[in-house]
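Subject: Sanity check before I submit

Could someone independently write out the structure tokens for this chain? I want to compare against mine line by line before I put it in a report. The sequence has 359 residues.
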Amino acid sequence: MSNFKLEFTLKQHTPMIHFQSDQSGATLRATELKPKLDRFLLENVEGIPFRENANGHRSLEYRVKIETDMSKSTPIDKRDPLFFGNMGDEQDKEFKNNPKNFKINFFSFNGEVHRAIEKHFEAFLANTNFGTRQSKGFGSYYIDNKKFDISLVKYKTYSFASRNWKKDIGLLYQFLRQGINLSKRPRSPFYTKPAIFSYAKSKGWQWDKKSIKETYFNNALKNQQREHKSDILNYSSEEKYLLRDLFGLSLSQEWMTYHRTVEKEHQEIERFKSPITFKVVDNIVYFWVNNTVEDMLSKQFRIRAGGGNDSLRLSTPSEFNFDEFFDFAFNINLSTHIDNRYHATNEYKTLSRILGEVR
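---
Independent answer below. Compare away.
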């Protein structure tokens, strides 16, 4: 290998959902990898030389070539536990897999850039997924025949073993953020309130779903309270916060039970990507939270339902520590958190396993 060339062999651990999935061979590409690697190195390697264009965009002097075979396409089943639809896309997205391990080559005459890539490329892969839905574990690549080095992730990292990572991530994420309601499933119904509700209650906070119901669906809420003696329906507090959107902002939600659309509006914030990233390597699910949640704290949103009045305004809390929340959530006693009638379900068994293994 020359002094100017670096070569790595990569292994694809989870399918990639490519934005150009209709194109033959759409898979990991230099056009996505290089900007991400540039940004990672600029943020983590002090004094690395860069070029800056007239618009102030910074880039590093190297070329990258990805030597992949034709990728294999698999249609996305809409029953997939992490399927979020082909919203507005003219072309359905597909999973993309490289059937074999493949090589990636870097070429640079700049010695400092060459050494930075050689030293930090594994850390870059440890912190990065590619393609669409990458925060949910899709598009995970790592250096072939290397054990995942958890110390390379910039944030406190959690993990658990999984033989069905999509199902496990989908179930865990629902449990943390919004709860799971399969109570009307004909066979083996299941229901659990979300960990964020229980955490909010422990802090003396009222979570946003209850506040929205009080304002826009109060009659339905009262009927629910009469029919079900549940703390998720009856717990109240004067400290009312917007909490679920700390997991990723949803400006418009269909509340199917009420046949209404709930919309949120902020003068400056239109998008907030989930701060939680899942990375799957060799049947282990790793996940962590970045510090972007700080950008969502103490932010007030106007909330409307079905184009009605806009009397409800909710703010996110001034402080929120995801690691503290995780410590609470992963120590929940599921045997009391979830009603006995659901303990024989696969969902209960899976959540029990995950919470028992996560570390």
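---
OP: Matches mine. For the report I'm noting this point. Residues 5-152 form a domain with the Alpha-Beta Plaits fold (CATH 3.30.70).
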